[in-house]
Amino acid sequence: MKDQILVFGHKNPDTDTVCSALAYAALKQKLDINAKAVRLGEVNKETAFVLDHFKVEAPDFQDSVRPQLKDIKSGCTEVIKDNFTLKQALEVLTKANISSLPVVDESGKIETMLHVSDIANAYLEMSTMNIFQQFETTYENVAETVQGELINGSLPKGLISGKLLSLNNLNNGEGKDVVILELLKENIDKVKGQDIGLIIWCPINYEEEADLNGFDIPVLKVNNGFFKVFKLISQSVSVHSVMNRNPFYMFRTTDSVEYVEGLMKEADQTNFPVLDEEGHVFATIKNKDLQNIDRQKVILVDHNEKAQTIDGIETAEILEIVDHHKFGNFSTIEPLMIRAERVGCSSTILMDMYKENELLPEPAMAGLMLSAIISDTLLFKSPTCTQKDIDAAVELAKIAGVNAEQYGMEMLIAGASLGDKSPEDLINMDMKEFVMGEYKTALAQINTVDVKGILDNKDSYEKAIKEAIANKGYDLFVFVVTDILNNGSQGIVFGTATDLFERAFEVKLENDNVWLPGVVSRKKQLVPNLMAASN
């Protein structure tokens, strides 16, 4: 739904990124703006504790904002039913100004594509006398196509099995034939008793009405001439009987525009049906329709770097960024609103934005925002924490009805429980990519109360990190295990640029790891030190 603004934080979401997205979407909704929070990855244990505590559903997962075929604003929505006559099919094609359309069965499921050339080829193949044996149609279709008035009897049901005859070749009939004549009164005795399914009468102006009492053959009176009626009958043939079964391209509404564009260039096909999730035709599109799409409107919170954001961001319309990090390789093609402050948490900024709109968050949202601040500042112990963060937390705790210190410690301990996580899970749980000078760097961080337990399993982490380096081409991978009780972090470091880490913190790695007293913040300590050392 492109009129809905998506609000999201970074990949490998932490508590700030999830809670700030929810809180900002809630603010937008209070301002009658259609906004929805989404997440770009799995919710971690700490965030799950927070959402459960305040009874808030986790945002829906979203992996891309690349435009899909369902976002196209043009295209033809007409279809041809397989029981249509060729006349009806041509009328639909002409009205839609398109050369081909999908044919659907009675349940709406696509069968094939019908092109005007299929109809033209059918006309070329038609034998006037044997038309009903070559192609299927019904008496009802014939009557509707020639626009006749039934003046005697009732139309037979089902397909026509006989031939199309004039009075002159009546002897060639095979039964249940369709006979076209002009002078009914003069020739009524000739057709009486014949096995005729339908007479089509093309009266001449001076002819008197025939007496049809006791005449048991259905008669259809038309206002067109003899030869015009012959031509019209060829249009009464059913679409089903001229359909080809050649292979053709069709797409789904969930297919990306980028994917479809590539296939269209290779296809010997002009018009392409698009099916919805139920398999019904959503639209028929051409290559030019791919240029007529709605871009997804988005708001970024708690990040701004392309490597950390949603796939396909280059196709989206970025409306705003609310962040408390440094700005990296970020550019847009349009102006936008940026709200960035040197505080410890995005939710601290959001608290100001609520107040600027003369609003306060609801208790549950206040609890989420408080949790984000506690998480990002490690319960106000991180060097990133400012007085503004503390003031916001005090106010939010009051609205949420919790004790910030007591609740905060419960939250951090709940999030620090890592026993059910694999090494691969832990190094990716809160990992961000950076380009530092000439070095492609990954910084992963977890909070725990059991640093020793991590170090005892170091070989497993080494294997997982080296696999990530090989797969992603990192020059440096820093896995930071932060001790939330002892105010410091253990750095586990691998790659070809480990000397960068040693220069940044003026340390010497022993067995690929080192204790960093007082270092708890990626944003204010790890990233700045590494950036400075890379220059």
Brief synopsis:
With 535 residues, this protein is α/β, with parallel strands linked by helices. 35% of the residues lie in helices and 20% in strands. It is elongated and about 115 Å long.
**Biggest sheet, in brief?**
6 strands, parallel
The outline comes out as elongated
Mean pLDDT value: 91
User: Count the helices. How many?
Assistant: 18
Task: Please give the radius of gyration in angstroms.
Answer: 37 Å
| Gap between N and C termini | 44 Å
Question: Could you name the ranges where pLDDT drops below 50 across 5 or more consecutive residues?
Answer: none
Give a written overview of the molecule.
The structure is a single chain. This protein is α/β, with parallel strands linked by helices and about 525 residues long. Helix content is about 35%, strand content about 20%. It is built from 18 helices and 22 strands. The strands form five sheets. Strands 3-2-1-15-16-17 form a six-stranded parallel beta sheet. The longest helix is centred in the N-terminal third of the chain and has 16 residues, at about 15-30. The chain is elongated, with a radius of gyration of 37 Å. GO terms for molecular function: inorganic diphosphate phosphatase activity; metal ion binding. Keywords: CBS domain, Hydrolase, Manganese, Metal-binding. Its cofactor is Mn(2+).
Topology:
Elements: E1 5-8, H1 15-30, E2 35-39, H2 45-53, E3 60-61, E4 80-81, H3 86-96, E5 100-104, E6 110-115, H4 116-125, H5 131-134, H6 139-146, E7 149-152, E8 164-166, E9 177-181, H7 184-191, E10 196-201, E11 219-221, H8 226-234, E12 251-252, H9 257-266, E13 272-275, E14 281-285, E15 297-301, E16 317-323, E17 337-340, H10 346-356, H11 363-377, H12 387-400, H13 404-416, H14 423-429, E18 431-436, E19 439-448, H15 451-456, H16 458-472, E20 476-483, E21 488-495, H17 498-505, E22 513-517, H18 522-534
Parallel strand pairs: 1-2, 1-15, 2-3, 4-5, 8-9, 9-10, 10-11, 12-13, 15-16, 16-17, 19-20
Antiparallel strand pairs: 5-6, 7-11, 13-14, 18-19, 20-21, 21-22
Helix pairs in contact: 1-10, 1-11, 2-13, 10-11, 11-12, 11-13, 17-18
Cofactor: Mn(2+)
Enzyme class: hydrolase
EC number: 3.6.1.1
